[in-house]
Structures are given as C-alpha cells and as structure tokens.
Design goal:
Distance between the termini of chain B: 59 Å
Largest sheet of chain B: 12 strands, antiparallel, barrel
Number of strands of chain B: 12
Structural class of chain B: mainly beta
Strand content of chain B: 35-45%
Shape of chain B: elongated
Radius of gyration of chain A: 19 Å
Number of strands of chain A: 9
Number of helices of chain A: 2
Structural class of chain A: alpha+beta
Strand order of the largest sheet of chain B: 1-2-3-4-5-6-7-8-9-10-11-12
Strand order of the largest sheet of chain A: 1-2-3-5-6-7-8-9
Oligomer: heterodimer
Helix content of chain B: 10-25%
Strand content of chain A: over 45%
Radius of gyration of chain B: 27 Å
Order of helices and strands of chain B: HEEEEEEEEEHEEHE
C-alpha cells in the first residue's frame, strides 16, 4: 500500500512537471538608443519564449529581421550593416530563473535570469533582471536591460559614430500560456 | 524500501530531464513556423552603373541622383591635354526618385546627352523571400523620354518625333549577403530613329546584366553590361557601335551610396546608351564616371514612444 501511494505520488508529480511548461509566440521586444541626431527605436511582436516553471529554464528568441523601424533606411542599415541578419537571423537568451515562483497565486515577483545572451552570433554570460507577473492564472514576464554593441562585436564605423549610440536598451514583455501538445 | 526510493528519484529526475529537452524542442518548433521575410538590399542603390536595379525607394523617401560621365581617358580626345577626360563631360544626369509606396516609385531626370528629359515609374512586382518561396525579385521599369531641344538630331518635323520610350523587366537574386546578380530584358523605342541614319531602327530589344560583389559591409565591386539586339548596330559599315560595359566600385556611407566607375558608354539614360554607344573600351575610349545617390526620408520625424 505504501509503495502504491508512493508510485501514485510519483505520477502526480510527473503530471505537474508536464504542465509546468509555458510558451509565448508573440513576445514584444523593443530596442531604443538615444543618439545626438535622432533616437533609434524599433519594435517587434515576433519574439518566442519557452519557460519551464519546474526547472526555471527560460528560452527566449527574437528574429532580427522582424524589428520594424519608422525609417526604411534605418531598418536596412540595422539588418545589413550592424546585425548582419542574414548571417545571424536570431538573437536569443537561454538560461535559468533561479527564484522559486509560486505560479498558482497572483503576484508580481522580481526575478533574475542567468544564462547566455547571443546577439550578432556572439555569446555573453549575462544575469538579466526582470519580473514575473501572475494574474488570474496567466503568467507574464518583463525585462529591461542594456546591450553594449562592443560586447557583441557590432562595429560602428567612425564616419557614422556620432549618429549611433554604443549601448542599446532592450525591453521585452511576454504573455505566456500553458503549453499544449 | 531503499530500492523504491531510488526508483522514485530516478523517475522524477527522468521527468525533469525530459521536460528540459522538451523546452528546447518546443522552442525549435515555435521558431520553425516563423514566416519568411522578403530579402533586403539585393543592391544598395536603385542604380548601379548603367542599369537600374530591382531596389525601390521606400514610401515617402526621395532619392536624389547625380550621375556623371567624363570624357575619354585616352585616344585623340583623352590623355594629358584633357586631364584624362576630366576636362570634358559626355553626360550629366540629375534625377529624382520618389516612393509613392514601398513598391511603386515615380522618377524624373534630365540628361546632358541629347538634353533628354525622362519621366518614369518603377514597380517592384515580386520580392525575393528568405526561404526561396520566391527565389528572385522582379521589378518593372517604364520610361518616356522627351528631347525638347535640337542637339544632334535636327529633324524634328513633328513634335511626336521628340518622344522615346523604354520598358524593362529586371530580375535579380541575392545569392549570398555578398553576391547579387540581375538580368534585365528591355525594349527601346525612338519615334525618330536615333541616331538618325538610314537603316536605323525605331525600336529594338535589349538585354542587360549586372552583378555586385561586396568585399566589406560597405564596399563592393560592380559590373554592368548591356546589349541592344539591332541589325543596324551590328552590321553598320560607316559607324561602329559597341555594347556598353561598366566596371566600378560601390561605397556606402550611411545615407549616401557612391559609385565610381569606368565605362565606354558616353550616355547615362538607357534610351541614350542603348541607342547610341559608339565608343569602345579599346583605344582609351572609356571614361571615369560616378553616381551619387542620397536618400531623404520625408516621413515625419520619429516621436519616441519609449517610457
């Protein structure tokens, strides 16, 4: 009897683990850079993410080409000259959220994710602060952080140096749903 | 008991491990369904040396073009006496291209050669897609030319004789971030044959080919060639006609694209150089040329929505 109970517990846990995967197919990511001549700003809603609440694993990815700028030429230069999006089509983050979150109750939890941020084909170890919000059973995440161009070998030619800032601020917001097979 | 505890741990660990790899495979599945994007910047500019490319000026953008062809580098008209052709200019073209939409442009330009004024449109019908669902870009070009003054042709009895037309379908493919190639069948019609000589056809077909190889992100080499299918030009006993061929380098600085080139064609407008290229590469009858393309974005200045 004792063993049977144990086995049952085991399956119950397994089921819980199976449900603990959250996905997002339309994460908002925006980038912003304050520059002397003109601020640079771009947005996309094509980010994808998988969050495994049981293990804390977080995967995040965004297609570079999907970033939309107001100015067509800026968008072209962003893709062609800086991000080289044909060679490096995605920017991604793969890591772990160490904080234990109770996803069954409403609340706003400050968290931090540690892992590898890959931009322009260059991997950097980063710890990125963010928040997880649970509201009426829906899970959402937000983060705001800085990426230094030099860290990811994004070179800015001296000729246009003053038009472009050396750091880019990234904001992301994602609403997750439970993964269904 | 110990045995079962081991089994229990094993099962749990197995589930976690499976969930972990599941996260990766779910991620891959999510990203596999992303829509293909149109391929960007097959060429850096709307013009190469001789040819217009498949690229269009985007909505509410104005492209200002200054194209120049100097005199013969060598031969009787070149050499030190003309500072290798720099004292002369065989053609100067000043043009504007405006994006009514991202895919539809209207353009206007004026050449020194025959003082040709041309008004045209450019329509990007197909764009190459990143997944090769559309493997090439197709852009249509139409132009109407007018010669308001008598330059070499002085037999404009009827006003309609001053008009000429050009139509072209440009097919281009970006094979890699560095290499792009285009071919463009075209059609030229001069209401009054140009040059105005016995046997000169009013209309003929043409085929152009051009390629760009980027050596760095902002620097590349371009080659541009055109051939008119014309018996008059092929078998002429009094005048020799040659196929226009251009070689050049392309430099992008941000808003500007510069092309510095060498070509045997004296004229810049397709109507002119396809009709009348009488200079050849041999004997120094080629010239230095340049193209400056500057894009002005006429959209309202971006207001930041960043908090």
């Amino acid at each position: 009897m004792k063993y049977l109970l144990m086995l049952l517990t085991c399956f119950a846990t397994a089921k819980q683990v199976g449900q603990a995967i959250y996905v997002c197919k339309n994460a908002n990511v925006s980038l912003y850079s304050k520059a002397p001549i003109e601020d640079i700003e771009a947005k996309t809603a094509k980010g994808t993410s998988v969050y495994n609440a049981a293990t804390g694993d977080i995967n995040f990815s965004v297609p570079i080409r999907s970033f939309k700028f107001d100015k067509a030429l800026m968008e072209e230069h962003f893709n062609e000259n800086y991000m080289e999006s044909e060679k490096y089509p995605q920017a991604s983050f793969k890591g772990k959220i160490s904080n234990a979150i109770n996803l069954s109750g409403d609340g706003i939890y400050p968290v931090s994710a540690t892992g590898i941020l890959e931009v322009h084909g260059v991997k950097q170890n980063r710890t990125i602060p963010g928040t997880i919000t649970v509201h009426n059973g829906t899970v959402s995440m937000a983060a705001d952080f800085i990426v230094k161009c030099a860290d990811h070998h994004i070179t800015i030619p001296t000729l246009v140096f003053h038009n472009i800032a050396e750091t880019i601020r990234i904001q992301m917001a994602a609403n997750y749903e439970i993964y269904k097979k | 008991m110990k045995k079962y505890l081991f089994l229990f741990t094993f099962l749990i660990a197995g589930q976690i491990a499976r969930a972990q790899t599941a996260a990766d495979s779910i991620m891959n599945a999510l990203n596999a369904t992303t829509k293909p994007e149109p391929v960007m910047a097959t060429f850096k500019s709307t013009w190469l040396i001789l040819s217009q490319t498949t690229e269009t000026v985007k909505k509410n953008n104005l492209n200002f073009l200054v194209v120049h062809r100097f005199g013969d580098i060598g031969g009787p008209n070149g050499g030190g006496q003309t500072f290798f052709g720099l004292d002369a200019s065989t053609d100067i073209y000043i043009g504007f291209e405006y994006g009514l939409t991202d895919n539809f442009n209207i353009d206007f330009g004026r050449s020194k050669f025959e003082q040709l004024i041309d008004l045209g449109f450019k329509y990007a019908l197909l764009r190459q897609k990143s997944d090769d669902s559309t493997p090439f870009a197709l852009t249509l070009i139409g132009k109407a030319g007018l010669k308001p003054y008598k330059v070499n042709t002085n037999v404009f009895y009827e006003y309609s004789n001053r008009f000429s037309y050009f139509a072209q379908a440009v097919i281009a493919r970006k094979f890699s971030p560095a290499f792009s190639l285009q071919i463009a069948p075209g059609f030229v019609r001069n209401n009054l044959p140009f040059p105005y000589l016995p046997g000169s056809e009013k209309q003929f077909f043409s085929l152009s080919g051009a390629a760009r190889l980027k050596l760095t992100k902002r620097f590349g080499v371009v080659v541009d060639y055109s051939h008119p299918f014309s018996d008059f030009r092929k078998n002429n006993s009094s005048i020799n006609f040659y196929d226009p061929l251009g070689l050049g380098i392309e430099i992008e600085t941000g808003g500007h694209v510069f092309t510095i080139n060498f070509t045997n064609a004296k004229a810049i407008s397709q109507i002119n150089y396809l009709s009348d290229t009488e200079s050849k590469w041999a004997g120094g009858q080629f010239r230095i040329g340049f193209t400056i393309s500057r894009i002005f974005d006429l959209n309202p200045r971006h207001k930041s929505t960043w908090k």
